[in-house]
Amino acid sequence: MENSIIKTQEISLVEEKFLDKRVQRRSFLKYAGAGAAGIALVAAGCKRSDHSSLMDEMPAAGVSFGMGDVGILNYAYALEQLEAAFYTQVINSKFGGMTATETALLTDIRDHEIAHREFFKAAITAAGATPIGNLEVNFSTIDFGNRASVLGTAKAFEDLGVAAYDGVGYLLKTDAYLVLAGKIVSVEARHAAYIRELLEVNSFLGDQVDAYSVNVSKTPLEVLAIAGTYIKTKIDPSSLPTS
Questions:
Q1: In total, how many domains does the chain have?
Q2: Positive/negative CA dihedral, 154, 156, 160, 163
Q3: What is the pTM of this model?
């Protein structure tokens, strides 16, 4: 019981570390209608100096996520690395005709994904575990100069992220982790809705819910089969919990 209390306190301290830092959210959060509970986490530590490429450090040579809650955190950390790297390149490249509004909103999403990435890294460390290394990404199939290519990929990443969180959330044993994952997936869902709206007005929902209006979920194997298209680093998810 005492260990559980200590772990919860450590997680809270990590969250506070990020909540104490500011990121300008401009019109994105107003558009998304995000309430305080939904976006508390992503007012996170997005210092402008954090926008360097993930490739600045030695990439992981082949990684195992680990077991239990830490394994799930590392899995989420890997996906956030991918998204942060993608949006960083989107802003660095800027497709032809990108409007000021699109630039501001995609910059916000980039900042959110960097915040998520750094949060998971810190949370894993706070749990006394070792985060996986920086993943080597491969975006060679994406035309970053083309709006349709960029937004189509962004839509795929955001939909995949929501399905990924929904596919493992129930496996988390620590309540504090589950609460934080819930905050993050709500932000990912808002990203997905906005990207859909950029592609086609009034298409914010799309096919990301099933016939019972429940979000589509995917297992880690299903997610990595898709995400792996853009990740060169070899990943072994076999240690992740399944029940």
A1: 1
A2: positive
A3: 0.76
